[in-house]
Amino acid sequence: MHVHRIAAFTLNGRGGNPAGVVLAEALPDSIDMQALAAEVGYSETAFAARNEDGSWRVRYFAPESEVPFCGHATIALGAVLARVHGAGRYTLQLNDATITVEGFERDGEIGSVLDSPPTRSEPVSPELLAEALSLFGYEQADLALHMPVRRAHAGADHLIVPLNSRRALAALHYDLDAGRSFMLNHGFVTVAFVFGEGERHFHVRNAFASGGVLEDPATGAAAAAFAGMLRDLELMTPGEIVIIQGEDMGRPSRIEAEFTGELGSSIRVSGASSTISDE
Questions:
Q1: pLDDT tens-digit readout, 145-161
Q2: Which CATH architecture best describes the domain 4-115?
Q3: Domain boundaries in the chain?
Q4: CATH class of 120-269
Q5: 255, 9 Cβ separation under 8 angstroms
Q6: Segments in the chain below pLDDT 50
Q7: What is the separation of C-alpha 106 from the centre of its chain, rounded to a whole number of angstroms?
Q8: Among residues 140, 147, 144, which one has the least CA distance to residue 126?
């Protein structure tokens, strides 16, 4: 199978999160897709095959598991579809939702915009919060006072943990095996730690142990879930937020998330991409 290797959510042409993209006549079986994703070694590889109605059937695999939705791999897929089939909007049929991605040329870079699955969020129990803080080396005093810790969903469940300083965000550390158990036991695809710098500008670090990855440099699905949480809790007026991720990994990434005031509605997530290799 031919694998396009794309960095999604790049910042000024650098950084971003590598993703594999496979365009196939028909999707391979799950075992083969899982094996190839493990061989590629990126946090996700997207597999896509065109349906008779012109839409694309898409599945996402991390090195150790299938995930229901992956934002950065969708942005990478949009870039590949634009290059291979032309700029435009494409309908994607996921396991549990139907979304769109648009690929286009912007200032010499390939840009993509996805419309996420619907959003929702809910509180977490004190016991779960205490377990998370212990696992990731934080205390209650590290949490932001104006924003709650929530389970947030936009195609997949993420634990959103707002912190009160950039220093606390930089201190993130945890054991991969313990993190994997925590995420799988509680149904989280990732755990996103967030620090707000200004009203609509955020720094994020994202633990992805459920997929066998210690940290993700850019996570579009978690960005959509976080933006939906802000909107649905009326913590943010409609508009755009900017998320900078991957700085602490040396892979700075920029994610833009735009939302309307309609509760639970899709989040528009956009970013630039660059080719790593196309062999």
A1: 999 999 999 999 999 99
A2: Roll (3.10)
A3: 4-115, 120-269
A4: alpha beta
A5: yes
A6: none
A7: 22
A8: 140
